[in-house]
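Entry 12.
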Amino acid sequence: MDKETRNDLPGIQWFPGHMKKAQRLIEENLKLVDVVIELLDARIPASSANPMLADIIRHKPRLIALNKSDLADPLSTKRWLAYFRAQGIPAVAIDSMKGRGMKQLVAKAEELARPKTDRLVAKGGRPRAARCMILGIPNVGKSSLINRLAGAVKAKAADKPGVTRAKQWIKIGAALDLLDTPGILWPKFEDQMVGLKLAFTGAINDEIYDREQVTALLLSVMRRDYPERLVERFKFKGELPQTGLEILEAIGRKRGCLVKGGLVDLEKAQQIVLNEFRAGKLGLVTLDEVPVGSGKEADGEGTKE
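Predicted 3D structure (tokens):
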């Protein structure tokens, strides 16, 4: 990580009261389900994984779904899937908006639940659908996934973190019942880059952090890892500006975000950068690398430098 992204990281913490309530709700209802589907953002598979959940759900079969894979670097997604599977955790890549990976997700959930449902029948119980709980941080796409699986708008979805607030059972055909839950973050991010990546992707409310600083840091990361995307999207000629803030100001000028005196309206420029990054207009980007030296990279290839 370069000097700009390493120093003076903004401290981002966000654990509103309804998230504590959501945690209790998950713990109370876990006994009702056979399988837990943990939804992660394919652009940040490590940073969007809530470490609290691993402890809460440790006794349940677990399936990881890398959502928004249409916005992530395909090679990185392949490596992350191989990494999770090598840890003994089934994993699939999905795009809940376009419906990619839905059949694979349902089939894997049913497979993981089968030992439990078969035991119930063996003991004289009636056959029933597999019961799954979908967990994930805010704005990772849980409601969109449920709506896609159900074929109708069953869960309230929004671009704003924290919309899903109460548990809902949703029937997916004859073979699967889903228990939706609110998204929960965790009280403290030990690594501030985790908080930043959550801010970059919209998992954290934009109103609680310094957007100028965070946007400049995002551009600094993009300059380091995907400079060609910035050049292509914003039509830079020659060498890119050195710092994220300088890149932000240059983008503001290129997009006509000017105020009296020819100064750049940085607030408008920030909104352009964040919106276009989150919509995938800056290209397919993965910000988390598979752990170096894990030996679990796909096809024996190393992680992106």
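Annotation: Residues 1-9, 157-165, 296-305 have pLDDT under 50 and may be disordered. The chain has eleven helices and six strands.
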